[in-house]
Write a structure and sequence with these properties.
Elements lengths: L1 H16 L4 E14 L15 E6 L2 E12 L2 E11 L14 E7 L2 E9 L1 H5 L25 E9 L6 E8 L6 E2 L2 E2 L4 E10 L2 E10 L2 H4 L2 E13 L2 E12 L9 H7 L6 E12 L4 E10 L3 E2 L2 E2 L5 E11 L4 E12 L6 E11 L1
Antiparallel strand pairs: 1-2, 1-3, 1-21, 3-4, 4-5, 5-6, 6-7, 7-8, 8-11, 9-10, 11-12, 12-13, 13-14, 14-15, 15-16, 15-17, 16-19, 17-18, 19-20, 20-21
Length: 349
């Protein structure tokens, strides 16, 4: 009898040890018809062609937990992983926000692979689901939202509706350029205020060796709006500055102007989204506009774009929904337009 009790006690140890672990995730996939540069389907003359695809819409699975250390202090951790319902190969372990840290009355401190503030706390202007091959979402406007390897991040506690965040990412792969070592470390600042459905958020990020590496040097984004009483309205503005920004866009005219060597390239963009919930149904409409870029303060013609997206979400339950959207991008100049249509299922757990 004693042996049986001991065996049961031992068997219960792993369950007790795992009691603070939460399994969570989101499975998202859809059927898309894409006529886009990212999809890369063209005819013999290089003209864009529509192509039907089964695509993943950034599905993920994660594990997180905490341990009470006493006096209001907790150890926190998370391992989040990208998964793909369409069978594509960019799946891995710890590919999304993965960290260990501490949380208490002082706020939250984490280190690992961490989202910049725009990726974790903003994107109100881009509420839809879509693949990286699609323009049925504001992927151009949110192109810099992402994660920073080898990072530390501090988030303040909520202070009467105010929140803040500061992230630092080291450069562990420094390059030798023109006889000097680069240091492309990055700093990211986030600020937020929310009250009675109104919100305002600001993101700033800076990179070190932008001129030597021909990359983004600084990036500002502001988002503001209202989300309450079934109404959703969000406005966004952002500007970037750097050296050789051709890789951010597909417009041939814009790429020619942005490949400017050591010249300073600037972009400015606006976005507006509005939606309203009727029971289980939420339609919304988004519009984004990129102005002509400037190179050393000289405006380059035919380097802007405009985009609109119409989306519709229908909740089948609290965790499952059907989603569909159509998006269209018009480039200035001779660059052909892009379009996408997608419909799929979203399940959160």
């Amino acid at each position: 009898m004693n042996k049986k009790l001991i065996a049961l006690a031992i068997a219960a140890i792993p369950a007790a040890a795992m009691a603070d672990v939460t399994l969570y995730g989101s499975i998202r996939g859809g059927i898309e018809s894409n006529k886009t540069y990212a999809a890369g389907v063209t005819d013999a003359n290089g003209n864009l062609k529509s192509n039907t695809q089964i695509n993943d819409w950034t599905s993920r699975i994660g594990f997180k937990g905490n341990e009470d250390l006493g006096n209001g202090l907790k150890a926190i951790w998370q391992v989040e992983n990208r998964v793909n319902v369409d069978g594509s190969s960019n799946t891995g372990f710890g590919t999304r926000d993965t960290f260990v840290g501490l949380e208490g009355a002082f706020g939250k401190f984490r280190l690992g692979k961490l989202s910049n503030y725009a990726n974790s706390d903003m994107e109100q202007v881009d509420p839809g689901y879509y693949s990286g091959k699609s323009v049925a979402g504001l992927g151009y406007f949110t192109r810099l939202d992402g994660r920073v390897n080898n990072a530390v991040r501090y988030d303040t506690p909520n202070l009467a509706g105010f929140n803040g965040s500061l992230l630092y990412g080291t450069d562990e792969t420094r390059k030798l350029v023109n006889g000097s070592n680069t240091n492309n470390q990055t700093w990211n600042l986030g600020l937020s205020y929310e009250n009675s459905g109104f919100f305002g958020k600001y993101n700033y990020q800076h990179w070190g060796s932008a001129q030597e590496l021909g990359t983004i040097q600084s990036w500002h984004r502001l988002e503001a709006g209202y989300n309450a009483n079934n109404l959703y309205v969000a406005f966004g503005y952002q500007q970037t500055q750097g050296y050789d920004l051709a890789g951010q866009f597909y417009s041939a005219d814009l790429a020619a102007g942005a490949s400017a060597g050591n010249a300073k390239v600037k972009t400015k963009e606006y976005a507006l989204t509005a939606g309203y919930t009727f029971g289980a149904l939420t339609p919304y409409l988004s519009y984004a506009k990129g102005k002509n870029i400037s190179v050393d303060s000289n405006t380059i013609d035919n380097t802007g774009y405009s985009q609109w997206v119409a989306g519709l979400n229908y909740d089948l339950s609290k965790r499952t929904s059907v989603y569909g959207a159509y998006g269209h991008v018009s480039w200035k100049g001779d660059t052909p337009s892009e379009s996408s249509l997608g419909v799929g299922l979203i399940h959160n757990f």
